[in-house]
Amino acid sequence: MLSKKNEVGQSGPFSVVLFHSISGALRAEKLLKAESVSLKMIPVPRHLSSDCGICIRFERADELKVEGILGRSKLEIQGIHQI
Amino acid sequence: MIYLDNAATSWPKPKAVYQAMDRFMNQVGANPGRSGHRLSIEAGRVVYETRESLAWLFNIDDPLRIIFTSNATEALNVAINGVLRPGDHAITSSMEHNSVMRPLRALQERGVELTVVSCSKEGFLDPGGIEKAIKPNTRLIVLNRASNVVGTLLPVIEVGAIARRHGVLFCIDAAQSAGAYPLDVSFTKVDLLAFTGHKSLFGPQGTGGLYVRQGVEDVVEPLMRGGTGSRSDSEHQPDFLPDKYESGTPNTVGLAGLGAGVQFVLSRGVNALREKEEKLMHHLIEGLGAIPGVTLYGSGDAREQVAVLSFNIAGIASSEVAIRLDEEYDILCRPGLQCAPIAHRTLGTFPGGTVRVSPGYFTTEDEVDIVIKAVCNIARVLR
Ligand SMILES: Cc1ncc(COP(=O)(O)O)c(C=O)c1O
Q: Is it true that B2-10+269-382 and B15-268 share their CATH fold?
């Protein structure tokens, strides 16, 4: 079984970035990890979307960095929200 | 036993392919991108990694422009049926596999015009012939990169440039060439690139895919619609890639294996794999070509083809040769028409077909020698 503790070192407060597709979220995960952004893949919070998908949670302090990395990759995002 | 049917499906596969599939089944196993728990996310990562490896291989900027299908046939059906409407005109060559010809012939019965441009009897295509066939209503050109009967390479770079100049969509069937011969989508002007996972990409059967160039998805209808794990609040199919064309639970274990297969190709390098196969093919062409009573079809030059060779022995049916190779010499190959009747008409081998031998990465020079001797024996007894 895969370890539960493969994403550590986050303390919050958090923001999440939502994507159109799961594949988009997985691409973003790799792009952000390559730039050492500390993150965790989580189910999309129910109040943000009626979707059953996943999103990426990261430290709010990294918002600009995350926006920058994803913007440069031209990966379309559905939005960034503070949680 | 000597396995010379790699053009049908490559075998054996690199060990890493079996290991990746075993790891997925034993340690991951979940439905990718459906549920959001860690095993589901890990399954999604497995699929994504395979997408990214394929993007490296074909030099595709955005891995999400690759959609997975169960084989090249499904990918070609998405491309062909997704683009063409009654009144449209399509162009193809006389060297195609039935996975291209049958969808096109079916559309022809429903009001799509079709021009089949003739190739030479060695299987070569003059790109000028394609350009001459273009009409105001031409929507799509479909060509294979390499023939599954004789391995001949078609001029996709030239035809891609012609298609782009005329504003016509260009679809390549790379089933026989992906992994075996270089193809770079930033260089070859291709709108839709269909590949299969189980041949020179070393994946398991039941894997394949289609690259869709940016913006082209607007004019390609999906073949199937259904659950994608995204936009679950909507009863309508998403319009973004890859979800527009990927409904239903995928063959995740197969894609795990395909990812390992593509990594194997990337680690060796397509050019190095190509060099190895070219040497084997040179040896095979020289050896079989020198046997009295044996006719070789195709280019006769290992540099102008992939590792597929067709031949016949005078006075004996291709099926009979294949049975004797199997039963008396333990050599496995494929006789007949290889799902490509139009290619055999072009080569002049319809309806009898040919004996097709297709070496692969794991074939050795010694095995090629054994095959040459076996064919020599069969041909000699007859004379
Ligand atoms: C040239 C060509 N196109 C298409 C296909 C179809 O591939 P698949 O059987 O994986 O759908 C094949 C192989 O069978 C082929 O050789």
A: no
pTM: 0.95
- Which domains can be identified in chain A, with CATH numbers? 14-82 (3.30.70)
The Cα angle at residue B49 between residues B46 and B52, in degrees rounded to 5 = 155
What H or E segment, with its residue span, contains residue B52? Answer: helix B38-58
- Which residue among B32, B45, B230 sits closest to A51, beta carbon to beta carbon? B230
pLDDT along chain B (383 residues), means of 10: 98 98 98 87 97 98 97 98 98 98 98 98 97 98 98 98 98 98 97 98 98 98 92 89 96 98 98 97 98 97 98 96 97 96 97 97 98 97 67
Measured in angstroms, how far is the CA atom of residue B8 from the centroid of ligand 1?
8
CB contact under 8 A, A30 and B52: yes
Q: CA B59, CA B262: separation in Å to the nearest integer?
A: 13
Q: Which amino acid is at B129?
A: G
Residue B383 is predicted with a pLDDT of 60
Q: Sheet containing B334-336: give its strands across.
A: B294-297, B309-313, B354-357, B334-336
Written as six digits, the tokens of B14 are 């690199």
Q: Which among B45, B52, B233 is the nearest to A50, CB-wise?
A: B233
Q: What is the Cα–Cα distance from B288 to B80, expressed in whole angstroms?
A: 38
Q: Where are the beta strands (DSSP E) in B254-368?
A: 294-297, 309-313, 331-332, 334-336, 354-357
Which residue in the block uniquely carries the two structure tokens 């955005």? Answer: B62
Which among A7, A1, A52, A20 has a CA at the least distance from the CA of B35?
A: A52
Please tell me the distance in Å from B292's CA to the nearest CA on chain A. 57
Cα A60 to the center of its chain, rounded Å: 11
A67-77 tens-digit pLDDT: 999 999 989 99
DSSP strands (E only) in chain B = 2-3, 66-69, 89-93, 113-117, 138-144, 169-173, 192-196, 208-212, 294-297, 309-313, 331-332, 334-336, 354-357
Which atom of ligand 1 sits closest to the CA of residue B199? 10
CATH architecture of B15-268: 3-Layer(aba) Sandwich (3.40)
Domain positions in chain B are 2-10+269-382, 15-268
CATH classification for the domain delimited by B2-10+269-382, as one of 3.40.50.2300, 3.90.1150.10, 2.120.10.30, 2.40.110.10? 3.90.1150.10
Rounded to a whole number, what is the distance in angstroms from the first to the last CA of chain B?
A: 27
Give the tokens for residue B359. 């070496």
